[in-house]
Amino acid sequence: MKNLVDRIIQDLGEDKPIKGILLKAQIVASKLNNNDFKTWIENEQNGYPDASNLPDYRVLNAIVKADLSIPFSGYVRNYTIPAGIYDDPIIEECICKVRITHSLQEIETIYENKKGGNVSTNLPAMAYTEVNKYVSGNVEQLKQEFSVASLIHIVDIFKSKLLSFFLDIEKEMNVGINFSKIEEQQDKITQIMNTYYINSAIANTGAGSVSAGDIRDNTSLQIISDSEQKEKFLSLVSQLKEEANSLNNSDLTETIDLITEECNKPSWAKRTLRVALNAVQGIATGIAANQLTPIVTNALALL
Q1: How far apart are the C-alpha atoms of 106 and 109, rounded to whole Å?
Q2: Per its UniProt entry, which superkingdom is the organism in (predicted)?
Q3: Which of 208, 227, 245, 292 would be a feasible disulfide site paired with 121, CB 3.0-4.6 Å?
Q4: How many domains does the chain have?
Q5: Residue-wise pLDDT tens digits, 25-51
Q6: Edge-to-edge strands, sheet with 138-147
Q7: Mean pLDDT, residues 150-171
Q8: Kind of pairing, strands 63-70 and 74-81?
């Protein structure tokens, strides 16, 4: 496991794409067998199921914009609603903070497609009632706006926390902690997690879903359903297994096992399979890339 931890530390230091880092971290999480760490990695990899238990670095400040219908005056678009006008701090929190539940890979994709500017999220219905108290006219649409730069900062903070966590894990390994007896080390792992506030979360007071043009396309889950396509893909996975077995590399074998696990599900998520295949290629670099690269390339072409 130490070699894999070292590789993750190197990837984080070189600012490698998050998808490969997360897959390696998933392998480590399965070996550490710590529920808190495993849940954290799974949520960052797949997205949080709801906004009720988000880490604080996923809560961003937002500018509130409203479209107003004003009697006898017409229609006003993108009117900025100032912060700090609400009597109830919970209402203030709900309206002026945005909670990001998307996976880290989806966040990176949004950033790569937009680079700059703002994205938006719709506010829940209760916010319309509150904002109506402070404006002339009726609120027709209400949204939160925040910068793409603040969105990608979530990825940066995650990388920083993960790096700190693995540096401490590596330190414990070097001073003689026996991580092969993992059940005896759970308190130590949890202590390291708490040191970096990985478990810190905030109460949910309402949230919307990010909805800006191309973002809708990026966040939709693509599924392989064609039986012929599945058959071809499984054949390539079998070839990957055969090559991995001949290399006797545990990291490579475990990553391919993750692909097999996805293929055992009723529906196969293309995004998950792409991440795993790219990780296979990354792990194989310098080992036997020429043997595995054509297989990985053919598999990716099916997704």
Answers
A1: 5
A2: Bacteria
A3: 208
A4: 2
A5: 988 888 887 888 888 999 999 899 878
A6: 74-81, 63-70, 138-147, 118-122
A7: 88
A8: antiparallel
